[in-house]
């Protein structure tokens, strides 16, 4: 006879966490295999499993909890016992869209059985909602928000940091080191962990992170490894946590994307209310970002709209796309502060750095790239038939799109303007 845990897992494969070990890339491109251990080491600490429910080691523990407490899919969706988990999940989803630093750190006391249940199953329920939206951009934003939460936790959780690092990196180690710890000790020599990571792991992750310290030329390299030394206000462990954010995001996102197709219409209908809430929040966020310009979104080329929306949703737009957006802002004479605001939702957003870089583009008067270069650099979201204007042979540059839209709108306004005819002269008696 099957237990509740077995039925839970069989009925809800879409809920299973941590199984995927590769990064799925949307758009039909094959997945990129990343170096990770084939068999992650066991985790016995239940607090760690509840705090980081995306870990592959958490799946059997959560299945056991489901069996122990008779948590079925129906219970998770609408049972009274799981209402605290659903409430916490709704907060996770709202913070996914609205919070700049991702999901809040904890929803309760993880040292109690009930607290661990709420935290673990709230993650599962939130992921179920996200999968049911069938929206890849929302999946990406949710994965980023959960990864940001994990990064903030791991910065100050060195015990868990070790096991999580060895779960997601194939070659990483630490040693006790005496020196500046990077925790604001003003150079005082303190005992702390110093980490060393293999070059394949570092090279795969570092292009996704902005900042000179993440460029290979600026690292300390020896014997095929990178030494992550502590800096002022940035410890070695904090650097590992930052690298882990990328691997965790990729794992969560890939796992969710694989399970999107497993959500049937009946399940999506049962989740209609939370789906509607999170979709409305996403739309409002995008519209808020667009409204900063004071311009009509309808005049923007699809490439510009997509980049603004991606940044607003936490997608890490490539360098070419960022320069293009800044140059479009300059050419369209948008205020610099408006263009800087477009980047506010991007991972690793820095007000000072972004303001400097956007200011440089404005000062130099960069010309926005044409359609051909945007396609080569994967910044054109339009396929044949998606946009009739983009399908025109003469449409070779995004600025032509803007001018064409504005001319068409002006012509429509002129045609809609009623012609005022002079009243005939009143008849007079002769």
Element layout with pairings:
Blueprint: H1 4-11, H2 46-51, H3 58-68, H4 73-78, H5 83-98, H6 113-133, H7 136-154, H8 158-168, E1 172-179, E2 190-198, H9 199-205, E3 220-222, E4 225-228, H10 236-260, H11 265-270, H12 272-291, H13 302-312, H14 319-331, H15 336-342, H16 351-364, H17 371-376, H18 398-416
Antiparallel strand pairs: 1-2, 2-4, 3-4
Helix pairs in contact: 1-3, 5-6, 5-7, 5-12, 6-7, 6-10, 6-12, 7-10, 8-10, 12-13, 14-15, 15-16
Question: How would you describe the overall organization of this protein?
Answer:
53% of the residues lie in helices and 6% in strands. It has 430 residues and is mainly alpha-helical. Strands 1-2-4-3 form a four-stranded antiparallel beta sheet. The protein is globular, with a radius of gyration of 26 Å. Residues 4-12, 17-33 and 291-295 have low confidence and may be disordered.
Quaternary state reads: single chain
The structure class reads: mainly alpha
Number of strands: 4
Q: How many H/I helical runs? A: 18
Short note summarizing the structure:
The chain is mainly α and 430 residues long.
Which terms summarize this structure?
18 helices, 3 domains, mainly alpha, 430 residues, four-stranded antiparallel sheet
């Amino acid at each position: 006879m099957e237990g509740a845990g077995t039925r839970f897992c069989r009925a809800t494969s879409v809920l299973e966490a941590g199984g995927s070990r590769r990064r799925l890339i949307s758009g039909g491109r094959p997945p990129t295999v990343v170096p990770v251990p084939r068999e992650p080491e066991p985790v016995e600490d239940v607090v760690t499993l509840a705090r980081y429910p995306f870990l592959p080691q958490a799946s059997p523990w959560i299945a056991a909890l489901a069996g122990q407490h008779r948590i079925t899919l129906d219970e998770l969706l609408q049972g009274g016992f799981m209402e605290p988990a659903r409430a916490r999940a709704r907060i996770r989803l709202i913070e996914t869209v609205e919070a700049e630093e991702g999901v809040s750190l904890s929803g309760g006391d993880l040292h109690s059985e009930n607290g661990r249940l709420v935290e673990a199953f709230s993650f599962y329920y939130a992921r179920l909602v996200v999968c049911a939206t069938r929206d890849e951009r929302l999946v990406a934003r949710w994965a980023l928000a959960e990864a940001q939460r994990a990064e903030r936790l791991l910065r100050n959780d060195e015990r868990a940091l070790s096991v999580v690092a060895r779960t997601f990196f194939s070659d990483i180690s630490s040693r006790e080191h005496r020196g500046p710890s990077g925790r604001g000790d003003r150079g005082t020599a303190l005992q702390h962990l110093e980490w060393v990571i293999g070059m394949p792991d570092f090279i795969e992750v570092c292009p996704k992170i902005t900042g000179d310290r993440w460029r290979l030329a600026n690292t300390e390299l020896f014997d095929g490894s990178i030494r992550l030394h502590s800096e002022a206000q940035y410890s070695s462990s904090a650097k590992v946590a930052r690298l882990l954010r990328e691997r965790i995001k990729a794992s969560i996102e890939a796992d969710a994307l694989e399970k999107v197709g497993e959500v049937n219409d009946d399940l999506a209908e049962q989740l209609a209310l939370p789906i509607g809430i999170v979709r409305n929040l996403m739309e409002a966020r995008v519209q808020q970002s667009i409204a900063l310009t004071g311009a009509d979104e309808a005049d923007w080329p699809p490439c510009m709209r997509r980049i603004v929306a991606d940044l607003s949703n936490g997608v890490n737009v490539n360098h070419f796309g960022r320069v293009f957006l800044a140059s479009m802002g300059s050419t369209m004479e948008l205020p610099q502060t408006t263009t800087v605001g477009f980047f506010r939702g991007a991972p690793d957003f820095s007000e000072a750095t972004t303001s400097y870089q956007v200011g440089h583009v404005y000062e130099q008067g960069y010309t926005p790239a044409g359609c051909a270069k945007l396609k080569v650099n994967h910044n054109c979201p339009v396929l044949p038939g998606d946009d009739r204007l983009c399908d025109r042979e003469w449409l070779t540059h995004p600025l032509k799109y803007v001018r064409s839209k504005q001319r068409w709108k002006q012509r429509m306004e002129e045609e809609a303007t009623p012609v005022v005819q002079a009243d005939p002269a009143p008849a007079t008696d002769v």
